[in-house]
Amino acid sequence: MSERPIAFVGARLIDPESGYDGPGSLVTAGGLIADAVHGDGPPALNDDFRVVDCGGALLAPGLIDLRVKTGEPGAEPKETLESAARAAAAGGVTTVVVQPDTDPVIDDPSVVDFILRRARDIGLVHVYPAGAATKGLEGRAMAEIGLMAEAGCVYVTDVDAPIVDSRLMRRLLAYAGGLGILVAHRPADPWLMDGATATEGEFAARLGLIAGPAAAETIMLERDIALAALTGAPLLVDQVSTAGALASLARAKALGLPILATASINHLSFNELDIGDYRTFCKLIPPLRSEEDRLALIDALASGVVDIVVSAHAPAPPEDKRLPYDEAAPGSVGLETLLPALLTLWHEKRIPLARLIGAVTLAPAKAIGLAAGRLAKGAPADLVLVDIDAPRLIDAAALTSRSRNSAFDGRRLQGEVRMTIVDGRVAYELGVPKT
Amino acid sequence: MEIKAPVAPGADEVRRRTFPFPRRHFLSIADLDPPQAVELLDLAEGFVSLNRERAKKLDLLKGRTLINLFFEASTRTQSSFELAGKRLGADVVNMSPRASSVTKGETLIDTATTLNAMQPDILVIRHEASGAASLLSQKVSCSVVNAGDGRHEHPSQALLDALSMRRAFGHVDGLTVAICGDILHSRVARSNVALLTMLGARVRLVGPPTLLPIGVERWGIEVCGDLKSGLAGADVVMMLRLQSERMQGAFVPSSREYFHLWGLDRAKLAAAAKGVKVMHPGPMNRGVEIDSDIADDPAISLIQDQVEMGVAVRMAILASLAARLDNR
């Protein structure tokens, strides 16, 4: 399929690999970046090109989101791979990694294959599955990690459920590490968090919510760090969210352990008070933390203790959310708000732009071994063109995602995606309905 | 010939005192400011004397429909709201989820909107989830009264407790009130802390550290880790039930040890102020948090008064909410 090449002129290019942030233009050809020209000079063009005058808008590598839940297979009314792909494209996300907590669970190469085939058929954005770390996500026996990796899963994880058995976790790290496969693990002590839907503190106590202490995260993370040191295997710490755990993480990284960490955009943007009058859209896993934790997380992202930002996209239909807080399903959709929420952190002057963009492009690309995430000649033409100043009032009802449970509903953010390019093709264009 | 219903003495007085409730819903003590809380207690006082007459009925809620929607089993609160509604002339319907379609998978909101379509005026709800009453209030057009939501609030209980204290001591401000036991799981404790501090009482929370909410030291009250010093100088001792049904895992080693350390008996009560009164929101676990000897001693126990005040306070709440509806 030969697509008309595109020339972006008059853009502000930001390339996390070279560190370039300045005026420039970029041309695509054959699904790749044919050239990225720094400076004001126009690139060499001919009539074949579709020329996009960026007017100073930001042109960055397309976002790579390592933590996206859909409902396919098994719970399609929540979200299908197609609706998730459309939401991703609308949000400037060009690669999504879907989580294995589907029905059936992605713990078998045939399900990996199914996801990849569906993604090919949809063809809108890149979709890769993460495989289950343990069979059935039950935390008892290793899944067929090697076979799933050969079939195309990009890392393994038990998603929200912590792997309690330390011996199993050790073997998992050693085994997967030996095969060159990354293990992701969300650190949470399951006993301290038993039944918890909020972070322990004055606020949760007043609301009468069952809460778990922030230390539950540190306790499990310290174990994981010790096991990473024991095995020498790489570990992806999933959604670190507390100041205590960040201190542990910083120590482990200072020792040179091969540990990467993600933070969710939700925990960078909200604190426990956003639960307010029992807002179920703010019921998340891990639960929202204190403002001190949120600020520590922002600092950790700025300093590089946190490497990657994820949307933690978790669709839930109204029947699962319009319930009392204790009974409601956890999670917030996030594919369409990830970029504007990140840009809002930049507008608030909390983190440099290049650092923010790197955390959703180059860093995740490197973590799972993709060639994307860069604006270099020969790299995949996965791009997002975004007006970084455009004010947005997020209206959950207007989201593309099949479920509209957005924690950002009613929030004012800044940044609007004008165009999303995947493999040199237009996956989304503002104001242009997708046929 | 027209048969006139007998008018209870004091009815006019009660009618005169009835004031429109400040909000459409009564979900939390925070819905009241101090003068409004006192006004409600004054109004309830009028209903206490009325309730002791032979003819107890008034027509303040005549023509109005009250639905009791109780997702958790309740004897005293439900019958108390039912009697309160009936004595004010409302039509009262009791809904219990076991007998309804909630067990067939219908959600709380579906049930509420269904009931709402039947045009009730007041919906009284009890639910095991914190925030359930608040959620409901956002989805219905009638008034919602929170009769207990999970571990969050039980505002009418706090009002009846305050009324019982005021009648026993003549005032609430300046009283030292020790609330003892399972504070963590108690909505009664949360509502009482809010109301009693609002009314000027000194509140002290007493219980094992595992049953005290995290951050409780920042509630602007005293916190005490052992019963004896917690009871020292207390005018009122409010014992709370050990709520095993809400517990995730064990918080104390055994009920025997709990009673030994935290249960109220005469020996421990000796540390309290002279003339101390003992309260319990019920249902009691005799021999776990309170000795029968104390619970049944009319000289010190206000437990029966609490039940009586419950009806009066709920009449005051309903009358006040209805007065607001009448004003619309």
| Count of helical stretches of chain B | 12
Largest beta-sheet details of chain B = 5 strands, parallel
Number of strands of chain B: 9
User: In one word, what is the shape of chain A?
Assistant: globular
Mean of all residue-level pLDDT scores of chain A: 95
Any low-confidence stretches of chain B, pLDDT <50, length ≥5? none
- Characterize the largest beta sheet of chain A: strand count, sense, and whether it forms a barrel: 8 strands, mixed
Rg of chain B (CA only)? 20 Å
Alpha plus pi helix count of chain A: 13
Biggest interface and its residues per chain?
A-B, 25 and 26 residues
Kindly state the mean pLDDT of chain B as a whole number? 91
Terminus-to-terminus distance of chain A: 18 Å
**Going across the major beta sheet of chain B, what is the strand order?**
7-6-5-8-9
Query: What percent of the residues of chain A sit in helical stretches (DSSP H or I)?
Result: 25-40%
Unreliable stretches of chain A, pLDDT < 50, 5 or more residues?
Answer: none
Radius of gyration of chain A: 21 Å
Computed structural class of chain B: alpha/beta
> Oligomeric form of this entry?
heterodimer
Indicate the structural class of chain A. alpha/beta
Query: Approximately what portion of the residues of chain B adopt beta-strand conformation?
Result: 5-15%
